[in-house]
Amino acid sequence: MELIIRKHQKGLIFVKIDIAPPIGSSDIDGLELYDILNYKILLKTAPKMTTPEKYIFFVVVGFLCLCNVQAEVECNHTVTHQAWFDIVIKDYDGPAEDLHDRFVFGLYGKTAPVTVLNFAKISNGYKHRGTKLHYKNTKIHRVVVDFLIQMGDVTTGDGTGGKSIYGDTFDDEEFTLSHDSAGIISMANHGKNTNGSQFFLLLQKARWLDGKHLVFGKLLKGYDFMRKIAAIKTDASNSPTKRIKIVDCGSEEVAKPVCLTESQREAATDIDIDIIV
Questions:
Q1: Among 73, 92, 127, which residue terminates a domain?
Q2: Which residue in 63, 64, 131, 162 could disulfide with 196, CB within 3.0 to 4.6 Å?
Q3: Domain around 55
Q4: Average pLDDT, whole number, for the chain?
């Protein structure tokens, strides 16, 4: 922390505080979890302060500084990456009448860096030592009414498979976020520390999943399309009766991370935020 105090000739005291604490760090490719906080205060006061005044002044400055750091650290819904999925519903309005649309997801790379890296890499296509993983050309294999839409099986395609960039599975990160709104994306699993590539999109809040499944992002665009998928008839095993395929996808890191507001986090409609990639 750097504290600079300058007394202006007109009786103004200018205080600048630069704080650069590493809020989080990672050796994972593409994730830079550092924040630089700048806090500037312009205080009009007498040219000379007594000792009690100086004491009060520095207490106030320190308090404001800590509040700024706390606000930044506690923003667990910061979008650091965005991913897009182009999806086709075959024969939606009849034979050869397909429906094309897109999902755009905001990913929380500060809160769930390991999970976001896995998702982002597979969205772009991951190749390593003979392993090829890609969400492209996979399908939405499960739709549960008023609950979720599930996808991401990059090995078998039917919901029985999946694989991560770290191996077959990877461990849970800290369960920081809640399944508290429609549009939440969270990892599917078959028990503790069994995350692979499958994930689900919530149709409504489901807080009973907290502590069991890892939230790592939020749907930004495509809520109307989400509801159209949710309305498709399914069979006894919750498989949609129409073929729903991810025909293209990708992800990229945003130039300037954006912290979603409370209203944006709770939104069940498209979220308008200024993301520069």
A1: 73
A2: 162
A3: 2-73
A4: 83
